[in-house]
Amino acid sequence: MINYTLKCANDHRFDCWFQSAAAFDKLKAAGMVACAVCGDTNVQKAMMAPRVRPARSAAAKPQETTPAPAPEAAGAPGPLSQPASPAEQALKELRHHVEANSDYVGKDFASEARAMHDGDAPERPIYGEAKVEEAKALIEDGVPVAPLPFNIGRKTN
C-alpha cells in the first residue's frame, strides 16, 4: 500500500491510499480519482515528505512516562471518524440529508430520472449511479440532474 498526498485543480489537498503506484495511474487514467472536497477529477500528486522509518537498532527504546495528553488538548486532530473541517462537516450533513430524503435507485438512476422527466413515473427525489455517457445524455435532454459531491455507498438491502 502507498499513501499519496494529492491536490486538485482548485488546490484542495487530501491523502489517499493505493495498492501501488501502478494502481494510482490506472485509476487516475480511468477518471476514478476525485478530489475529496469538490469532486474534481483533475488530480495530481502533490509534494510530500517521505516516510522513512529508522533501523530497528536505531529506534529509541520506549520509556515509562506519564500518559500523553489527549490529542485535542495537544492541538492534534481528533479522531478520524469526525469531520476535520467545516467543508467536511457540510458534506456529511448534505449526504445525511440526501440519504434521509431521497430514494436510492442504484444503477437505474438514468432510466428513473428520464421516466420522471417524461411523465411516465411519479416525481420524487432520487439518487443513484449513472455512467458519464448516461449523465451527459440526461443533461442534453433537459433532465435536471446534478452530481453529488460524495461517493455513494452501495446499498445491498
Describe this structure in a few short sentences:
By secondary structure, the chain is of the alpha+beta class. It is 31% helix and 15% strand. 8% of the residues are buried.
Task: State mean pLDDT (0 to 100 scale).
Answer: 81
Order of strands, widest sheet: 2-1-3
Mind summarizing the main beta sheet?
A: 3 strands, antiparallel
Number of strands: 5
Uncertain residue segments? none
Radius of gyration: 21 Å
Continuous helix count: 5
The helix-and-strand class reads alpha+beta
Distance between the termini: 31 Å
Question: Approximately how much beta-strand content do the residues carry?
Answer: 5-15%
3D structure, described in words:
The mean pLDDT is 81. A hairpin with a 4-residue loop joins strand 1 and strand 2 (13-18). This protein has 5 helices and 5 strands. By secondary structure, the protein is an alpha+beta fold. The protein is elongated. Among the domains are: 2-45, no CATH class; 86-140, no CATH class. The strands form 2 sheets. Strands 2-1-3 form a 3-stranded antiparallel β-sheet. It starts with a strand and ends in a 17-residue tail after the last helix.
